[in-house]
Each structure stands twice: as C-alpha cells, then as structure tokens.
Amino acid sequence: MEILNLARQAILMPTGIQDGDIEKIMGRLLSSPVDAADIYFQSSHFESWVMEGGIIKEGSHNIEQGAGVRAVFGEKTGFAYSDRIELPVLLEAANNVKAIVRQGQDAEPLHCKVATKAAGRPNYYATQNPLKSLADQQKIDLLRRVDSETRKLDSRIEEVIVSLVGLHEHILVARQDGSLVADVRPLVRMNVTVIVEQNGQREQGSMGGGGRSDYGYFIDRDTALEYGREAVRQALVNLEAVEAPAGNMTVVLGPGWPGILLHEAIGHGLEGDFNRKGTSAFSGRVGERVASDLCTVVDDGTLEGRRGSLSIDDEGTPTELTVLIENGILKGYMQDQLNARLMGVNPTGNGRRESYAHLPMPRMTNTYMLAGQHDPEEIIKTVKKGLYAKNFGGGQVDITSGKFVFSASEAYLIENGKITRAVKGATLIGNGPDVLTKVSMVGTDLALDSGVGSCGKEGQSVPVGVGQPTLKIDGLTVGGTSV
Amino acid sequence: MQNHQQINRLKNTVQSILDEAVKQGASAAEAGLSQENGLSVSVRLGDVETIEHHCDQGLGVTVYFGKRKGSASTTDLSPASIRETVGAACSIARYTSEDEYAGLPEKELLATEFPDLDLNHPWDIGVDGAIALAIECESAARSYHKEITNSEGASVDTHQGVRVLGNSLGFLQGYASTRHSLSCSVLGQRGDSMQRDYWYTVARNAANLESAADVGKKAAERTIRRLEGRSLSTRQCPVLYCAETASGLLGSFIGAISGGNLYRKSSFLLDALNTQVFPEFVRIHEQPYLKGALGSGAYDGEGVATQTRDIVSDGILRGYVLSTYSARKLGLRSTGNAGGVHNLTIDPGKLDYQGMLKELNTGLLVTELMGQGVNMVTGDYSRGAAGFWVENGEIQYPVEEITIAGNLKDMLKNIVAVGNDVDYRGNIRTGSILVERMSIAGE
C-alpha cells in the first residue's frame, strides 16, 4: 500500500488525475470486447555527472513522464501514449487504441471499479530517491576522489573519465480487472574509463557497476575506487597484448560478466514472443536437450538490489526465478501477459518496456548459470591450447539462425594448462542452440556482473544482469587476426 | 501553414526559456524544443498486429554561468515544469567546474541563411491505408517462394515533427520535417536451416519510397539466398563490403576523426590531418544542402552553419568532424558537426555491383555484420559476419558463423575499389567497398 501511495503522489497528484478518471479511461477501453487492457503511468527523474580532464565537466537533470494506453485483442495490440497526463488526452488515446477491435458495434461500456489489491508482495529494493542520497557537493567530491586516486595509480595514465548516474522511477499500472499496482525503482551506476600511453601506444580500460540502490553503494565498500583500479589494470594489460588467434578453439570464459554468453546465445532465443511466432531457433524445443547436463540456467528478477531486478514487471506481474534450462534440458520460456495467454502458459514476470512510450514485451531480468563442481584452476589446467576470456564488451544475436557474437575486451592465451600472454580484443562467434552442448566443465565460482548491462531489443533498452561460473567450451570461433 | 504557426509558437516558448535562464542568472543559454507525431502499423501473416499512435515532445536546455555549464531536459512542457527545468540546469552549473572551452558557438559561425531543404512532406495515409500497404508488402514477400515459411511481418511508419533551436546570441530557428518508412522481415526454411532477413525503404517524401511489392520481394530474396549457409576455414582473403555494411566502415572512420575522440586522444587517427588515410582515388565529402535528403540541414545541433566540404580528397584527410567544444579543445573552429555529419558521401567508382564482384574475383562478400568489436583507440577490428563466398566473380554459397578482423588503419588504406551501387537510405552514402585483405576466422 505504501508503494502505491508513493506512486500516486509522484505521478497522479501533480496532474489531478483521480481514480474516477482512471475508471473512465478504462471504461472507454473496455467498451470494445478486448482481451486485455492497461494504462501505464510513469514519472522518472534522471541525473548524470561527468568528470573528465580533471574537472567536473558535465551535469544534467532529466524528467520523463507520461502515460501509455494499450488494448489487446487476440494477437492484435492498439497503443497510444502521451507525455501529457490529462483526462481528455488519455480518453482520446483510449478511443484510438480500442479501434484495434473492428467488430463494428461497441459493446455496452463495461464498468470498471478501481480496487487496490491488499499487497503482501516482496520488494527487492528500497523506495528512497537515490538522487537525494548524497548532496550535490558530495557527488562532486566522490567524482573528484575517484579521479585523483585513479590518476595516482600509474604514471602511464593519460586521461580518466568518471561518470555517475542515478534514476528514480515511479510506475503505476491500471489493469482491466480494476487493479492498480505500483513500483518505485531506484537505479545507480558509476563508470571509470582510463586511457594509458606507453611509447606512443595507447589503450583504454573501463570498469563500472551499480544496482537498484543509492549512491552509498559506491562509498560503503570503496567500490568506486575499485572501479578505477580495475580500469587501470585492464588498460595496462592491453598495452602488452599481442595479436589474438583466429579460428575454432577451446575457450574458457571467466566468471561474472562473461555470462553475456548466456544472454546472447540462449536468453533472447527463449523469449516468449519469438517462440509463439516460431521465429526462434529454440521454437518448439521445450523438453529437448539444448545444453550439456552440467548446465542449469535461470532468469531471476527477484535478486535483492540487482540492476536487472524488478519487484513487479511493467505489466504488474510479480517477477520470479524462472528455470530456463535444467541439467541441459529446455524447461520453458520467458513470458509477458500477451504471449503467455496466447501460448496457454503463465506469465513469468518478464513483461518489460523502456518507458510509457513503448509497448511491453518479454525481456530478460538477471540471467545466469548455476555453479558447477569444478575448481576454476583445474579447468584451465585441462586446456592444452586455447583462449581464456575474462572481460567482454557487448554482444548480439540473430535469434532465427541462432548465430551470436560477443566481444572479448580482455583475453589471454592458454598454453599447456597455463594462462600465458595477453591478446588483443576479439569477437567470438557461435551457434546458440549448440554452444552449451559443448560445455564440458562448469566452475564452482558463480559470480554475477557488477551491474552495467543494458539490453536492446526492437529499439527498446532496459537494464539487465548476467552471471556465470567459469565455463569451458570445447570449440568456439575466435575472431583474431593471427591466422 | 499549420507548421508555420506551430514553429512560431515553439519559437516563443524557446525565447521565454532563454529569458527565464537569463533571469535566473545565466550569462548564456541554449534551448531546443521538439514535437513529433507519428503512426506505426505492423501486420503479420496477413493480419494487423499493432497500431501505435506516437506523440512526443521534449525540451533540452543548457545554461552557462561564465565558463560553467549545466543541462536539463523534460518531456513536460507546462510553464511550471519549464521553470523547474531551467532551475535544475542552473543549479547544476553551480557544481560543474570552470572549463575555458565551454560556451556557445562563436557568433559569426551561426547559420544566417535558411534555404528550404524540402524536408517536410506529410503523408496522409491513415490507419487503413497503412494496414493495406503493409499487407501488400508482406504478401509480396510470403508469396515470393515456397521456402518462405514464416514472417516477422511488415510495418509502415510515418513521423512528422517540428524542431526549434535558440540561443542567447539571438539565434532562433525552426523547421518541420517528415520521415516515412516501410519494412518487411520474413523467415525461410530448407531442411534444418532457418534464416531471416529484411528490407526497408525510408524517405522524407512518401512518393520516393520503394514500392511495397519491391520491398517484400527483396526481403524474401535476401532470406532465401542465406539458406544453408556454412562456415569457412580460417584464412586471409579479400573482403567486399556490400553498400549497407560499407556505411558502417565509413562510420568507424568518422568516429575516429570526430572531435570527442580526438581531444581525448582515443582515436587511431590522431594527428592524421593532411596525411594519406585512404588510397589516392578516394574522395569523401559532406552535402548538407541536398534537397529532401535524410541528412540535410542548414545548421547543426548548436546553430552553427553546416558546410559543403571535402573531408577526404586524393585520399588525404582534409578536415575533422567538430562541434564548438571539441574544436576549441583542439585549437580549431567548429565544422558544423554538433550532432554528426550531413549526407556524408564517398564518390562512387565506375563499377556496379556485378563489376565489384568481378573485381573481388575470389574472396568474401559481407552482407551482414554483428556486434561492436571496433577499438577506436587502436583501430583493432573484429566483428561477426555473414555473406557469400565468391569465386571468379560468381557467388558460390552463403557463409555464416565467421568473423572478419584487421586494423582499420590498414583496411582504409587498402581499399581497392568503391562501387556505384550506392545505398541512399542513410546519412552515409556509399556503394560497396572492396578491402584488399582481412583475416577470416571460422571452423
């Protein structure tokens, strides 16, 4: 109840919209025989600070607010939105979207009574405004400290760029059964990029993190300074890197952020919309083996304070731990309401949208593989010749052909069971439906990423998390230059 | 006429925002305001899937207190919210540092001539018309071949917007523009091989869009030709970037000569001005005043006049891509590129697509690239790719699950030919580009 009241205060109060108005808009939507309808209200405050060249260079504050109105009939969706949260505007939006149902005649306007459900649902983050968790001067002091401490680490450092961003978002979803559900979401992130130079050669390193928390996250355990140390370490490693190998070889992926493998190789392919439409390489394969029996992969929106976590998704469905692959067998897909209804399964709390101006669709939250039995050092020892990839940039997948890529930003050769030379960044490419069948060892060292992931799908970006233990893959194509 | 009134109304709002900033103590200010309406309709398997009505507005304001800067933005344009937004920007400027390079553009660089660039052609297609067109497009794709077995659908998008930009040096300008597109994506299947591809057309004026039937047919052709792709053995060979992928290659070049990367010294083309970056036959230029083109504009994101100019001639780098700030950091003047380049064009050569395949002779034709894989600091390049293996100028079979790698410095210098098969759909206009040699990693 408390969260609902907070959301009402933040979104509805300034606009004067009352429950009666929501009933009118919903009544208008339901005057056609739709299968589902919702109104999504959002108000977001976002700030960003950038320190570069030793000075506080940029600061910005952004407000985004509006409402999206949706009606669904069968596989059809009508959608309209406005940044003006005003009754006449939203009533017109409702008129526009219910036209998706072309039955000629309107049904009797359905009466919709707004009711607030007695909530007892868990919340995975606090509601306090992270933007206010430090005074502006303290944010500046934090940036300056990270900058100066990082610059002291090595004489080869040419430039340090530190950024700090915070988001405080209120959402309120009115659904066709009259229920109103709300969420208040904090999100913070800090990033440190360094450029180093040695004998005219330049390289960069970058490290960041954050979560659904406040700025204390970066101060409490000196997390911020650790980002600086890690960025410098990566940049210096890359100064020494030689040409990366080219070709198919054994690849050992480190724990944590390399879990982007799971996000690209199988995660997207297991989103409900693609599978309902039969466009995914994983379509119709529930119950089949898609990975070695060492692999159990889950999507879990319920982790406390993680970047990809949500208490409820953007359709008001509570998030959950969804088992995607269990001991190598495909168990199920990630669903929003529309695709769950059309496939005759339950929604899994994966209905997400970038904002009120976008339609929800099935999206990942935190996607990771459970820990296995192998000591990470033992895994390296079994490799005669291969690649150890520790850090990655982004990735991409073609869900139909199953081909996916992800780009290593820190990698080493493995020779005779030992990690030897650092190699330059290279793209790794594989086939989603068979890459996990080649997983021959899984480490005990499950780690989640530090909280930097953003996932893009059909032009919409949402924050996500990934994770995995050390993994050994018997054969993946490494795109270096050394043929 | 309606646009004219809307532009005047927004100009008044922008002027009041600038006045408010000065009232709150700013020594200089800049504000941009936009309003956009649109309709997106998608169909799948012959029936409507989504109808989206778009309605966006936004205000961005930047204030300067001497050499300190603050920015804020909002989607709420009520007078109270506008005051708060200006207040937020001013409050931020209290905490940012003195930056000797910060500030509005030099007044003499601001645009003073505003020719009609023919960017505004509203399309009164309506929901029903859009549905009919999308269905026609998807049907053309689905009926093209029996191996087209599924569809991601076809969609029609139409957007119409107005933008106004003003600053406290007295610049206050606005224009209306439109953008319309039609796209289609279908799946094909042969045995175990399933592939998807797409095609789209985009234009300021709907009359310049490709026909729905052509878009559907191309989407289907492109899907079918990918079926039963295979990997290649690891090797080195010449690589022909098709026009669509070649624009990405030029995009990386533009990134390397952009002010932000140059003053941060995070570019592989530091100090490359007036040196040979491309082979002698290459000329790359900007054409901001092309009528009706997607990248046209008389001024950039700061109001600085855009320039018709050569960035590369005789293969030599003649100029950078600079905003006011990055130019000052480099001791140079803005090139009118705050927000990017304008219809960047590489002069086409004599060969058409077939001629370029003959020129490639034996090697890889790349039609799709995946992932980022470009290190702007070093120029190291490694990306996922799909395309076709070509022998003696003839396509042999589709190729997938490979990477192509090299260093951009070498790749640009070792361009062998540029085709005249130009793709006009984006802000970078190029034909296919043949690179002498790259590393291919595969099975």
From TrEMBL, chain A:
<dbReference type="InterPro" id="IPR051463">
    <property type="entry name" value="Peptidase_U62_metallo"/>
</dbReference>
<comment type="similarity">
    <text>Belongs to the peptidase U62 family.</text>
</comment>
<dbReference type="InterPro" id="IPR045569">
    <property type="entry name" value="Metalloprtase-TldD/E_C"/>
</dbReference>
<feature type="domain" description="Metalloprotease TldD/E N-terminal">
    <location>
        <begin position="37"/>
        <end position="99"/>
    </location>
</feature>
<feature type="domain" description="Metalloprotease TldD/E central">
    <location>
        <begin position="130"/>
        <end position="239"/>
    </location>
</feature>
<dbReference type="Pfam" id="PF19289">
    <property type="entry name" value="PmbA_TldD_3rd"/>
</dbReference>
<keyword id="KW-0645">Protease</keyword>
<dbReference type="InterPro" id="IPR025502">
    <property type="entry name" value="TldD"/>
</dbReference>
<dbReference type="GO" id="GO:0006508">
    <property type="term" value="P:proteolysis"/>
</dbReference>
<keyword id="KW-0482">Metalloprotease</keyword>
<feature type="domain" description="Metalloprotease TldD/E C-terminal">
    <location>
        <begin position="247"/>
        <end position="480"/>
    </location>
</feature>
<dbReference type="Pfam" id="PF01523">
    <property type="entry name" value="PmbA_TldD_1st"/>
</dbReference>
<dbReference type="InterPro" id="IPR045570">
    <property type="entry name" value="Metalloprtase-TldD/E_cen_dom"/>
</dbReference>
<dbReference type="Pfam" id="PF19290">
    <property type="entry name" value="PmbA_TldD_2nd"/>
</dbReference>
<protein>
    <submittedName>
        <fullName>Microcin-processing peptidase 2</fullName>
    </submittedName>
</protein>
<dbReference type="GO" id="GO:0005829">
    <property type="term" value="C:cytosol"/>
</dbReference>
<dbReference type="GO" id="GO:0008237">
    <property type="term" value="F:metallopeptidase activity"/>
</dbReference>
<keyword id="KW-0378">Hydrolase</keyword>
<dbReference type="InterPro" id="IPR002510">
    <property type="entry name" value="Metalloprtase-TldD/E_N"/>
</dbReference>
<dbReference type="InterPro" id="IPR036059">
    <property type="entry name" value="TldD/PmbA_sf"/>
</dbReference>
<dbReference type="InterPro" id="IPR035068">
    <property type="entry name" value="TldD/PmbA_N"/>
</dbReference>
TrEMBL record, chain B:
<dbReference type="GO" id="GO:0008237">
    <property type="term" value="F:metallopeptidase activity"/>
</dbReference>
<dbReference type="InterPro" id="IPR045570">
    <property type="entry name" value="Metalloprtase-TldD/E_cen_dom"/>
</dbReference>
<comment type="similarity">
    <text>Belongs to the peptidase U62 family.</text>
</comment>
<dbReference type="GO" id="GO:0006508">
    <property type="term" value="P:proteolysis"/>
</dbReference>
<dbReference type="Pfam" id="PF01523">
    <property type="entry name" value="PmbA_TldD_1st"/>
</dbReference>
<feature type="domain" description="Metalloprotease TldD/E N-terminal">
    <location>
        <begin position="29"/>
        <end position="93"/>
    </location>
</feature>
<dbReference type="InterPro" id="IPR035068">
    <property type="entry name" value="TldD/PmbA_N"/>
</dbReference>
<dbReference type="Pfam" id="PF19290">
    <property type="entry name" value="PmbA_TldD_2nd"/>
</dbReference>
<feature type="domain" description="Metalloprotease TldD/E central">
    <location>
        <begin position="121"/>
        <end position="227"/>
    </location>
</feature>
<dbReference type="Pfam" id="PF19289">
    <property type="entry name" value="PmbA_TldD_3rd"/>
</dbReference>
<dbReference type="InterPro" id="IPR047657">
    <property type="entry name" value="PmbA"/>
</dbReference>
<dbReference type="GO" id="GO:0005829">
    <property type="term" value="C:cytosol"/>
</dbReference>
<dbReference type="InterPro" id="IPR045569">
    <property type="entry name" value="Metalloprtase-TldD/E_C"/>
</dbReference>
<dbReference type="InterPro" id="IPR002510">
    <property type="entry name" value="Metalloprtase-TldD/E_N"/>
</dbReference>
<feature type="domain" description="Metalloprotease TldD/E C-terminal">
    <location>
        <begin position="234"/>
        <end position="442"/>
    </location>
</feature>
<protein>
    <submittedName>
        <fullName>Microcin-processing peptidase 1</fullName>
    </submittedName>
</protein>
<dbReference type="InterPro" id="IPR036059">
    <property type="entry name" value="TldD/PmbA_sf"/>
</dbReference>
